Amino acid sequence: MLHPAKRGRVTLLTNARILTMDADMTEIERGWIRIDGDRITALGTGTPDDITGATDMGGDLVMPGMVNPHSHIAMTLFRGLGEDVDDRLFRYILPLERECVTADAVSTGARLATLELIRGGVTTVADMYYFEAEIGRAVADAGIRGVVGQTLGNFDAPDHDSFDQAFALTDALVDEFRNHPRVTPSIAPHAPYSTGPEIMARVARWAADNPGVPVQMHLGETDGENDWSREHGGTPVEITDRAGLLIPGLIAAHCLHVSDSDISLMAERGVGVAHNARANGKGGRGIAPVTEMRGAGIPVGISTDGPMSSNTLDLFSQFAPVSMFQKLRGHSRKPMPSRDVIRMASIEGAQVLGMADRIGSLEVGKQADLIRISLDDPRLQPVYDIYSTLVFAAGPSDIRATMVAGEWLMQDRQMITLETARIMSDARQVAHTFGAKIAEIDRRST
Amino acid sequence: MLHPAKRGRVTLLTNARILTMDADMTEIERGWIRIDGDRITALGTGTPDDITGATDMGGDLVMPGMVNPHSHIAMTLFRGLGEDVDDRLFRYILPLERECVTADAVSTGARLATLELIRGGVTTVADMYYFEAEIGRAVADAGIRGVVGQTLGNFDAPDHDSFDQAFALTDALVDEFRNHPRVTPSIAPHAPYSTGPEIMARVARWAADNPGVPVQMHLGETDGENDWSREHGGTPVEITDRAGLLIPGLIAAHCLHVSDSDISLMAERGVGVAHNARANGKGGRGIAPVTEMRGAGIPVGISTDGPMSSNTLDLFSQFAPVSMFQKLRGHSRKPMPSRDVIRMASIEGAQVLGMADRIGSLEVGKQADLIRISLDDPRLQPVYDIYSTLVFAAGPSDIRATMVAGEWLMQDRQMITLETARIMSDARQVAHTFGAKIAEIDRRST
């Protein structure tokens, strides 16, 4: 997996317009990047002294690969299902997950997702689902980077009947990926209401015993969660804190229903937030107080949630909603400028995942996770403000090449690590089974 | 312009997945469409008896070309300018329009726009701007369909110093395009507050004298407009009605600030609405009551506004906001289902423009304005609900071919009627001048 033979290989990219996303937001109008093995070892303006074996970027934009800090990637297979109905969780999702989600289906869905992620410029994804080892293997095989979290919940999960079993699955996941260079195993209690204070406390103890294994959880997402937490005498954030799980590095997804004092507490504890603008918007759930959370110093990344919630896994589809939602809340054009959106999609997302020392910006010493974006489409021209171009005009199809850890995963939109035709055919086959199941559900309920 | 030699030509499209968008929302899983000259003369399921000279659509989706009922297409040249600042109108737009917007610049911007429209699947656009004859010529040359409206306003307009002059420009526009098969001349009073009751009354009289020439106007868009209308003793809609301009077929753009009684009045008068979700969201202005307007029977189309307001001219970038905004308002997943979004983008947009007898659906006797969409990208698979796929996963790059009035304007993403390289190079040159002007404005104001 480490490709030891390739470790000494040097890749030199020249004639690139570079957004480094470093602390100074350094931009290089025409520059170059040198990559030794999996790391960036030099970058600069103009042309380097020695351009032996250089790859000319043709003036295209080169920026850090994007970070998607919350998803359920195998749910590509549920994309577009149960739209526009309020009872989708009980009507569609739970029956489908109980009856159709097998290790094989998860593997197929995750492999379809890795195609989409690479083609959409996402180089690191955080996932929480079932049969999570399958997700880890799909991520490993695709060549991208992932934080893969085994979900623990008190409902009929497709891969465990008890919390004990879920902890055992998590232990096995950690064992399998402990030393993987790109796949980070993780533990993912589903949500406060679906695990409860005791299990949250147990997860906190487990996390203390497993340093370096991130914890992911849905937090402050639904109205039902608010009702549950009121009965338990606090906000979801407060109850999580009392259980000892509001720990540094917690990856908290959604945080739609958080009060000002919740925000202060989250900032104090060192929690990171994965913001799911489209999923929250499509669910009619509301707009998260992203401006306030970031103002309090909480890192907030841009995530997609699962494709049953917001349909796609690239971040482009989230950008305009992320910006517009805060502008609508503030009744002004000023909140959430495009520069900030792109920071959230790169270095801030890396901070949420505790990986900002390795990824999220193009800097010497960091991993060579980068994307090449063509600005040639008429839809993108002219470019006065590159961040605005990326946020409000670009799309996944403008990604021309994707590199992770110094390896090209896509060039000129041709996949390198993945067999597109086989993955698509497998996915269509599973979707056919799911389609029959849905027809059955619809027949039963009419 | 009529290509008389081609009038007898027959085009037969086979092996297509067809969304007709007719009154019954008829869908054909595998079917064909016969086109004689500029019109659809037959369509059906399976394979036609005679397939001589047929073009195989390879199972791709074929649907009506989309209708964008409100834009300022020449403003492609301002795309991405003045983002994230509240005083953009006075700081950037007005000085730029006064000093930089010439007939040549309008022509260049409009030609860049037609590239983007064809590539994004928009076959009919309604525009209101200055030097509108240039827009009409660009639309005519590109082969798309347009409603081109000369703007009349009481501010320093780049092409007129008085309303008399603006009416004269409109008369000339009507003369030039009166008999054009695809370009419909139009009159476009800027807004109630920027024309005033007397000029609105004069436009109403002018419109009565020029039957078949549609009237376009911004209505109920800004907070400032509300302040103005309060001083005039009514809502913007009421003041427009009192001036006699709330006439059948009025194309009212935005309608963000409309009361329940305004909506009843608009429905009674037979007004159509162009909804600019992204422009309103990016401006932090609010969410239009689209659910209520449609509920009252008002046709509502999906439009982009100018590229300085929402950056792109294709409707895909509007779809998710259009749906999400209504779901957020309703605090439910149910409002604005994907089927309705696609209706608004096609037949309902055609109704807004008064063209539903000719375009907006694929039916025998209608104009052959259609688009071919590939569903092959991993991002679009699987497809359980084709409307959801279009609204929440597809993008302009999935458009494979575009036809207007029986003529292919793009095939396999290759432009047929337009010279991409020349248009792009012209646009870059003008953008360079604009960039220098902006730098000057920024220097002056610091």
TrEMBL record, chains A, B:
Q: Which domain of life is it from?
A: Bacteria
Q: Per its UniProt record, what Pfam families does this chain match?
A: Amidohydro_1 (PF01979)
Query: InterPro entries annotated for this entry?
Result: Amidohydro-rel, Metal-dep_hydrolase_composite, Metal_Hydrolase, MTA/SAH_deaminase
Name any one GO molecular function: hydrolase activity, acting on carbon-nitrogen (but not peptide) bonds
Signal sequence span is none
Q: Which residues form the Amidohydrolase-related domain?
A: 61-408
Family annotation (Gene3D superfamilies): Metal-dependent hydrolases, Urease, subunit C, domain 1
Return the protein name.
Answer: Amidohydrolase
> What organism is recorded for this protein?
Qingshengfaniella alkalisoli
